[in-house]
Amino acid sequence: MNLLAACEAFVHVCDARSFTVAAARIGIPQSAASRRVAALEQHLGHIVIDRDNHRPSRFGATLLPYARRLTQLAGRIEEIAGQSHLQAITLAVPEGCLAQKVARLIRDAQKGSIDLEVVYAGWDLGDKDMSDPEPRTALVPSPPDISAWAIPLGVGQAHREETGPFFLDCLRPRRRLDARTSRLWILPEDDVSHIRDRLYHLRDSNGLKPGQVERAPSAQAAALAAFRDDDLVLCTPGEAQRFELHWRPLGEVRLNRTYAITGVDTTEVATLKDKLWAHIADVLGAQAIEY
Fold this sequence. Notes:
Elements: H1 3-16, H2 19-26, H3 30-44, H4 58-82, E1 89-94, H5 99-111, E2 116-121, E3 137-141, E4 149-157, E5 184-186, H6 193-205, E6 213-215, H7 219-229, E7 232-235, H8 237-242, E8 246-249, E9 255-263, H9 266-275, H10 277-284, E10 287-288
Parallel strand pairs: 1-2, 1-3, 5-6, 5-7
Antiparallel strand pairs: 3-9, 4-7, 4-8, 4-9, 4-10
Helix pairs in contact: 1-2, 1-3, 1-4, 2-3, 5-10
C-alpha cells in the first residue's frame, strides 16, 4: 500500500464529503479513490470514513490532522525539488578580493545560469565548520597538489624601489653590533608548511637570525612594520598594491599561495569549479592550475 497516496485520498474525501469530487481534485478515477481509502482502513485496522455521510469516523477524526500534515509535507518536498535550480550558491572569498572583480564574477555566473551570492570571509575559513548554513562553499588556502588556483608570492617593501628579484641573503646581519636587521613577515594565510618551511630553510642557509623570518599577527601589522621599521612582507602583487608597497618576486625560490574550493554540496563545488574556473582565477588574481 502507498501510505502517502492513501492519506491524500482520505484527506480530500473528508474535505469534499464526496469520493467523486475528491477523486477529481486528485486527478484519479472515483474507484481508485475508494480503493485507496479502503486500503488505508485495512492497513490501520480501523474505519476512517463513514460511508453514509462521507464524514470521518471517530478514529478518522483523530487521524485526519496527521494525514493532512503528511500530504502537506510531501507537497512541500516536491516544491523544493522543483525549485532547486533556482537556489543560490553562496561562495565565501578571501577578504582581499576586489569588489569590482567579485561583481564581475557574479555577472559571469548569471550568464551561465548560476545564481551566485558572494560573501567575504577571513583567511581561516577553511578551519571552520562548513556544515553551517552559510556559506556553503568557500575558496580556501590549500596545498599545491589539491589546489586549482595559484597566486605568486614575493616581497613587498615600503621605502625602496629596486627592480628585479629579491634575494633573502641581502638581509644577512651586518658586522656592526648596533646595526638593525630587517625582518621578513609571513602573513597568517601563508603560515603553512609548504611555504613557511621553505622560507625557514632559506633563512638558515643564508645565515639569517631566527627572528628575521616571522609570522605576522595580521596583514595590517605586517604593512605597518614595512613602513615603520623598513621590514618586508611576503605577499601577493595584489596585496602589495593594496598596502602601497613595492612588490618584487623572490629570487632563490618560487612560492605560490594556492587555493582550492570546498563546500558541503559536491555538486555545487563541481559546478563552480567547472563553469567559473577562469573567472575565479581573475577574482583571486591567480593563475589557474590545469587539472
